Amino acid sequence: MKGVNDIAVALIAKMKSIGRGSPSSRLMVIIAYSLGGIVVKQAMVAIARAHDSTGEILESIYRAIFFSVPNRGMQISHLLPIVYGRLNSHLAQLLSTTSDYLKELDHQFSGIVTYKGIKIISIYKTKRTKTPQV
């Protein structure tokens, strides 16, 4: 059962494996959609906490563009029947509007991007999408 932190650690490992952890790496723009944005935010927080060469990744992030990322949570009542009994059903709970995890992650992430001067662009939907049915 993988959680957001596990996926974020895998993302960090992938970035390091392609040379993003080296001081000479080029600036990058990160683009993330929905839960992927939560993973990116968790990865950036984990990088900021690390006291090793991983910090070079954070230094190379110029901008992050987030599409429809549930930063403040979302109504999950329609998701619960779909994910019930599945291995990653706990991820839906993290996306709740009452999620303490999202509040804390947003607080930590905001401090990092402010301190590092990373430009953030958030894009969100203005029209309702169809709710999936079981």
Task: Tell me the series of helices and strands, N- to C-terminal.
Answer: HEHHEHHHE
Distance between the termini: 23 Å
Note the main sheet: 3 strands, parallel
Mean pLDDT: 86
- Helical content stands at 40-55%
User: Structural class, from helix and strand content?
Assistant: alpha/beta
* Uncertain stretches of 5 or more adjacent residues: none
Large-scale geometry = globular
Quickly count the helices. 6
Number of structural units classed as domains: 1
Cα radius of gyration in angstroms:
16 Å
Strand content: 5-15%
* Count of distinct strands: 3
How would you characterize the overall build of this protein?
The chain has one domain. The chain has helices spanning about 5-15, 35-50, 55-60, 80-85, 90-95, 100-115, and strands spanning about 30-35, 60-65, 120-125. The protein has a three-stranded parallel β-sheet. The chain is an alpha/beta fold.
